[in-house]
From TrEMBL:
A GO BP annotation: proteolysis
Enzyme active site: E157
Keyword Cell inner membrane: no
Protein origin, superkingdom: Eukaryota
CC cofactor: Zn(2+)
Keyword set, alphabetical order: Hydrolase, Metal-binding, Metalloprotease, Protease, Signal, Zinc
Record has Heme as a keyword: no
Residue ranges constituting the Peptidase M12A domain according to the UniProt record: 71-255
EC number: 3.4.24.-
Amino acids binding Zn(2+): H156, H160, H166
Species this protein is from: Champsocephalus gunnari
Protein name: Metalloendopeptidase
SMART domains: ZnMc
Database matches in InterPro entries: Astacin-like_dom, MetalloPept_cat_dom_sf, Peptidase_M12A, Peptidase_Metallo
Length: 257
């Protein structure tokens, strides 16, 4: 597993080294430095690992699975009571999964229950990173939970499954953040494209649990996205913000806070 992520993250750096000629003996970009950086990256940015480390599925923006049925994308679940299963290999993550669902349910009308015979349901499965489809795609719908995925990461993926995109892709994002394209891994620029989507009239929130972290898909350890305002916790995965809660309540007609 490590060699795959190493290859992905070191590719851009090695290309730069070749282009610039022989490495200096006192260069800081040693193999040990880069391995440490990779390990830190894996720990800090697990939502990008599925795209970087798997060829089994079509993935964009790090953790969004692409459905073969484009009409299914961004579909709201028909009920606020959502059935789920946990695969046998993911049973060790049961506490984190249940805790994540509890966070989503705490201040919304969306609830989760063990599947009996429902046709459409979420199933939490083990994978390399954290990933999900956006919206209800119908049938058995996987939510991928890798070893590095925290409770907050799982909440993030559940919100994708409920129909929410990344906050940084909002059409009005340039008023609030700056994307530093020069620091983005080659070939991953598309993950920072703006997209059409519902804002529900709510303000942009860089502290949203659905916002990218500052170094997502960085090829050099430098920021790929910075806030124009002072935001200490951009990309946090500790809790749903008030606006995260409000979006769920609005999309699923729960009423306002």
């Amino acid at each position: 597993m490590l060699h795959l992520i190493l290859a992905a993250l070191l590719l851009a750096q090695s290309a730069k080294d070749v282009a610039s000629g022989p490495l200096r003996e006192d260069s800081d970009a040693t193999t040990e430095d880069w391995i440490t950086r990779v390990l830190n990256y894996m720990e800090s940015n697990p939502e990008t690992l599925e795209e970087l480390m798997t060829e089994d599925y079509a993935v964009t923006e790090g953790d969004i699975m692409l459905s073969s049925d484009r009409n299914a994308v961004d579909s709201v679940w028909p009920s606020t009571r959502i059935p789920f299963t946990i695969s046998p290999e993911s049973e060790s993550r049961t506490w984190g999964i249940l805790s994540a669902m509890a966070m989503v349910s705490r201040h919304t009308c969306v609830s989760f229950h063990r599947r009996t015979s429902e046709t459409n349901y979420l199933t939490f499965v083990m994978s390399k990173g954290c990933a999900s489809f956006v919206g209800c795609i119908g049938g058995e719908q996987p939510v991928f939970v890798g070893p590095q995925c925290t409770r907050g990461n799982i909440v993030h993926e559940i919100l994708h499954a409920l129909g929410f995109d990344h906050e940084h892709t909002r059409s009005d994002r340039d008023q609030y953040v700056t994307v530093l394209h020069r620091n983005i891994m080659e070939g991953k620029e598309r993950n920072f494209q703006k997209a059409k989507g519902q804002t529900f009239g709510l303000e942009y929130n860089a502290a949203s649990i659905m916002h990218y972290g500052g170094e997502f898909f960085s090829d050099n350890g430098l920021p790929t996205i910075v806030s124009k305002e002072e935001v200490m916790n951009m990309g946090q995965r500790k809790k749903m913000t008030d606006s995260d809660v409000q979006r769920v309540r609005l999309l699923y007609s729960c009423g306002t806070l």
